[in-house]
Each structure stands twice: as C-alpha cells, then as structure tokens.
Amino acid sequence: MSSTSTSFPEQACLDALARPGLPDLLPDEAFGRLTRLAAQVFAAPVSLIMLASGQEPQLASRYGPALGGLPTSLARGTFAAGPDRPGQVLSIPDTALDARWRGEEPVAGQPRPRFYAGAPLRTPGGQVVGSLCVLDTQPRSPLSPAEEATLEGLAAVVMDAVVQRVSGLALQQMQAQLARKRQHIDLILAKTGTALWSLDFASGAVEVQADLPAQGLPEEYAPTTVQALLEIVHPEDRPRAYAQMRRAAEQGTDYELQARLQLPGGLDLWTNSRGSVQRDRAGRPTRLLAVTTNIHHQRETELALAESEATLRQIIEKTEDAIYIKDVQGVYRLINPAAARMMGACPEEIVGRSDAAFADERQTERLGQIDRQVMDQARSVVYEAPLAYGQPDRTMLTSKFPFVQADEIRGVIGISRDVTLQKQLEQALRESNVQLERKVEERTRSLEDLNRQLQHDALHDALTALPNRALFTDRLEQAIRRRENSGNNTFAVLFLDFDRFKLINDSLGHAAGDELLLGIAERLRAHVTSPHTVARLGGDEFTVLLEGLHTREEVRQQVWSIQQALAPAFQVSGQDLRVTASIGITLCDQNYSRAEDVLRDADIAMYRAKTQQKGSFAFFEPALLERQVALLNLQQDLRQAVERREFRIHYQPILRLEDRSVVGVEALVRWQHPLHGLISPAEFIPLAEESGLICDIDLWVLRGAARQVRLWNAGRAAPLTLNVNLSAQHFEDRRVVGQVRAVLEEEQFSPTLLHLEITESLLMARQAHTVEMLGQLRALGLAVVIDDFGTGYSSLSYLQRFPLDGLKIDRSFIATAQWQPEVLRTIVQLGQHLKMYTVAEGLEDEAQAEHLRALNCEYGQGYFFARPLPAEDLGELLRLPEGPAQALTGE
Question: Does the keyword Membrane apply (predicted)?
C-alpha cells in the first residue's frame, strides 16, 4: 500500500515501528495481559509478542520462561509465512522436524521450543508489522482453524493496542510541534511588529494574534469586533478600511490597506495590512484572514527621504551652479536650469541628447575625453576652460566625478561655475597689488617720519613741547641707576604747582590758561638748561630734575633762581598776570630705587609748601610721609568716591515740637571708604573744597535726597520738606542757580519743599553778591535757611538785608539753655520778628525739647528724636502704623 493512500493511524504506526527502541514506548502492562491470555487460551507455557522495529524483529512482551534457540526467522516468517500462505497463521507442530529450525544453535541452560504457532499483527491497511506467538517445549498437533482464528483475534487485539499507543504518541508529538510553531510565530510577530487577525463576515467577530505588550500596547487594545477594529483606525483612513472590508465580504477580493492606527496617548502608527478571503463549499466568502505589519519607521523614512529629495531637487533647481548627469554614452539624463542656460537651451531640449547637439566638433571631443577619463580612472577631475557652448569669453570652473549606481559607474556628474568675474577680479587684483607695492614703499617712508614724530610726541607734552611724565620718569630712573652704580651721582627733583591757576583758568577761559602755561614753560626752559630736565606732568604741574647738585643749599639757591625767573608778570589776553609756584623738593639722599617714589615725595612736599604762604617751597621730610601720604591718598580717593558710589546719604528727621510730627528731613553726607570705613565730614569736606569737588558732592547729595524724599512723599498726605547744605564755594559759583533748577526738574521735585542751608559767616562776605544769589535761588520757589545761627556775629540790621526763610539755632546754645534761657528766647523772637521759622539743633533729651517748645520754637532735631539714619531705616520708621514721632521717641 502506497504512503499516499495510507491512513493516519497506519502511517503513524509504520513510522513508529521504523524507529529503533519502539518496544520501550509500548504499554508493558497491557502486552503482558495479552501474552498471558494467549498462553492460557492455548495452554502453552510461553507466549511472545514480536514487532518489526528496525531491521530485525524485536521482543515486545513475553509470558513464561525464556526459550533458547528461537530463530528470528520464525518471527519474520510469521510476518510472511511463505509463498503458500502469505501473512497467515504459521503453525509448526515439531520444530525438530522443520527445516527452518535446523540452523539455530541451542542456548545453554534454556529449553528448546518444540511447538510454535504465530499470528501476524496487521495494520488497518493490512501490512504485517509483527506477530503474536505461542510456544511449547513439547511437540503438539497443528492448530485447528478455530484455534487459528482465536490466535488471529488475539493478534488483532494486540494490534489495536499498538495502534492506540502509537497514535497517542504521534498526536502528542504533533501537538508539541504545533506549540513550538505557535511560539515561533509569536516570536516572529513580536520581533517584526506584525499581527495576525481574522474577521468573521457573518458575526463581525475579530480574532487577533499578536504580542501586544512587546509592542508597547496593552492586551485590551486587541479589538474583538469589526466596530472596535475600525475605531482604532485613524479617522482619515477609516473610510478606506471599511470599503476594503466590505469589498472582501461581498466580492471575496483580497484585502490590501496602508493606514494609521491610533495608539494610546494620541500617537499614530503607520501599518500595512494584507489578507485573503476563505470561502465555504458554495464559494461564498466567510472569513478574512489578514496580517498587519508595523511600517511606521519605513513610512517615516520614506517621508524623510521624499522631503530630502524635494530639498535636494529644490537646491539643484535654484542654485546658480550648472549641475548635470550624463550616461556612459554622453547623453544628458538630468540637467538643472543653470546648466540649461549655460548651454543656451531649456532642460527639456537637452535631456536625451549629447554635447554634439550644442557644441562644435572640437569642443565635443574635448568634453568626451574628460568624461571618459573620469569613468575609466574612477576619480574626479577639476579644470578651468572657456565655455564650450558659443561664449569663449566666459571662463567655467568644472568638477566632474563618476556617477555610481549599484556599485557600478553609470556615467558622469558635472558641476560648473562661471568664474569669469572672479578671474577678472584676480587680474585686477594683481594689477592693484603692483600699484599697492609702490604706494606701500611711499607710505613706509612717510610712516618712518611719522613714527619718529610719534615717538617724540609720546615723550613730550603736546602743549609746551617739554618732556612729559614718561620721558621725565625715564630720565629720573636713569639718574637713580647712576647713583646706585657709582654712589656719587647726586640729584634733586622739584615739583611745581602754580597758585591760583584754576581761578585764572575758570575766569579767563582755557585759552588764557594755555597761554599762561606756554609762558611758564618758556621761562623754565630758558632758565633750567642741560644737564637738568624740565617737564610738564599735566595741568599746572611741572617738574624739574636737577643733577650734579651736592648740598641742600645749592638746591635752595636753584629754587630761588627759578622763583625769580617766574616773578615778572605774564602777558595773557592783554592782561598782566603774576603767578607764584608752590614747590616741593626731594633730594637723592633718601636712597630711592623707584622714580615714582621720588615724584610721590616731591608731591607731598609741594602740598606742605601750599600750607604756607603762596610762593613757598618745602623739602620732603620722612617724618611727614605717613600723614601726607594718608591725606594725599584720601584726596585722591575722594575724586573717585562719587563714581564708586562710596558716599552715603543719611537723613535726620525734623519734628514740629508742638505735636512731635515729622515735617521734614535734613540730608547729611557720609563717606564710606572701602579701607578706612566711615570718614567724618569734618575730615573730607575741607579736602573736597580744596580739590574743587565740593560742588559735585553738593549736587550729588541734592539729587539723591530729592529722589528719595519724592518716593517717601508719594505715600504721605503731608509731604516732607528736604533740608540740604550748600557749601560756601558752591554758593560763590554763579552756575549754582541753574544747577539746582536742573536737579529739581530732572527729579521732578517740588521747589517749595526744598530748604537750602548756608552758613552765617557766608552772609558777611561779599554782601552784594550774596543778596543777588539769595534772590535768584528763592525765585526758584525754594527756601534758604541759616545753619548754625549765632556763631557768625551777624546782627538784626545785617539779617534784615537778606531774603531768608529760617534760622537753625546752633547746638551750643541748646546745651546751655537752662543757664542762658534769655539768649534762646532772643533768637526765637528774632526769627519771629524777621518772619523766619526757627529750628533747634542738637536736642538730646525731653527737657530740652519741652523748653524750646515753651519758648515758641517751632521745630527741632537731634539725637533725642533720631540720629541721622540710612534711607531704608528711616523709611521703615515713617511707615510704622503708630506714627513716626512715637517710633522715634519711644513714647
């Protein structure tokens, strides 16, 4: 029987019997019962089941003792009993008389079988695969037909057991194989992002096989109905999906769809689905079987590639460079508009044609040779040549390289750029370089002259042509080195500062000041000759290096000589001006090693001379160094204090004595030095006046205080007034009125709230000028108050001449109020008579405050109410709900 017509159990049985070791897989207990039954039925001592496993029959089960000399040929003969009875029961009454038995050797210790009967084991298809045998040690009569039928029946039962066992094993193997295949499918689905699904057209049920967690999806994402399946399809793709399903259900067509699935979180996933339809026996579509693959990455790659290609195409189309591709025959396959313009045609006319259609024979041959070189040598070529298409005056720079597809050279890619203008520019540049070289030579000579002039200017003062600080310092350094080396070189340095020069410069103008400086320089140059050096450091400061003088007396004589040379009047702007110089002197006996130290000490000595009468000179003394340096440094620091914002404004409240309400504040400047801490105004105000900085400080305080008080007044029903001190030097400056007006306008501060304080002694000098300035200031709308009244020896007759608004009683009278009450009463009454308000300064306790209130003094200020405070501290007190007066006095 052929394998194609063999049933499953039979084929499974045959396949199993072909495997060695089959008996180990068969049920021993069942076979044992069958062999025992056969032995009992035939009253035989031995019963066997033999199976054709492999090449030789194998013993599957035995009942009874082992018998020696049983030939396998008997078992095999049972499978095919012989030509007369193939596949039938074989019965041998006496094996001793049977020729098939004679060749077997007996087994020692085992009885020899004499009787043998065996029935074949047939598959359902009739193929013999073994035998059931009964044996006896004694000869017996042949089996009767009934006994043969019984033995065959028992053999059929044995065969059923074999088939059942083998079929079960085969089924288990098939199930295991099916499970392994399903695992393989699940693994493939997980790794490839693929899902298998089916749709039952009748019920609309959907079954999905996919490893959803491996794809980052929950298990419940798998749809179970066609409606749920369509819901996860993107709304824009859903109509196409529905149409495909409907067409498959109605017409049985294949299902093909690229669509987006909506994932949890609002993400879209591109997928590709393919499926086919199952039909029933009548040919009607019943089910759709489909596979869906994740093509999101592929789709994104395609979109990115399309975008990249579009960008590249746009670049090629828009670039001014000519870009083209030729195949191996020289035929144009791609050309951009720039290349088409170069060839004098449109792209459509060029593609599909070669250079022969657009260039002459010689140019065509030249271009072809270059193309063949690129392809034959598989390397790029760059060259310059005239345009080959009818315009030889244009120069083209061309790059050509192999056009490769699938690792094979398919032609040439060319990129050409018109460099005609560039070449023309290069030629023009070469010509220009020649001209430039000539000009450089001329300029070099001029620069050498200029350099010599610059070197001179760098070492000389621009106004006087005297050596400047750099040259003077260099010569002084040389003098120091000579003294260090020889030990006997002597020198002295004079530092000259001209008295009243600033007044002359300010009153007559800078031109007059420069004219005076030129006159001074000329006299010094004429009087101080080599080997000495005269220099101008800047402004009205001059220095003199005297060399070869051995004694202090020699230096003193030289200084007197210089003073005499400067004594005659100078003609400046048609006027005779006489000036004197304060001179500081430093001698070399101080063992200096640095020029700047010599100049420093000479400068200190000059300031010492200024403290004496005008036109004096002073020698530097080491004992004065510490104080002079400190004052000098302090004055130098003062010049930068405003820029460094080192000044601080403190505010002391002014209270109405009647109700202790704060009506105003006085702004007091403090200097917070970064090294020396808080410096008293008594120490730095004179320095500021001496250095001419006091006016800048006055304006800085006025501006800052006006800004702060305006901020405080923004939240007050009754605005605070602001008292600011005006220095005598500033008051003398006629610009003060305009400066005050400008500050008030810039800070938007009401002039009616500003009270300027001036000293009583200022009124006694230049009274006419004072009256004029007071009138101009009060015309702005502000008030003018006398500060520290009672110390300047003014009288009622004097005070009546001046337009004033208030008196501030000096603290010295407050301290003695208990012993001189009449003096205070007189001052208060004087203010009332002149219609001026009065302010008591320096109040330190309740008794003083109450005493002044009883004398009808309107206002008071002092430590009893508050010390001068920073703006933030006073601002906090002004904002307290119980009122600033209570907060200040602690009531």
Answer: no
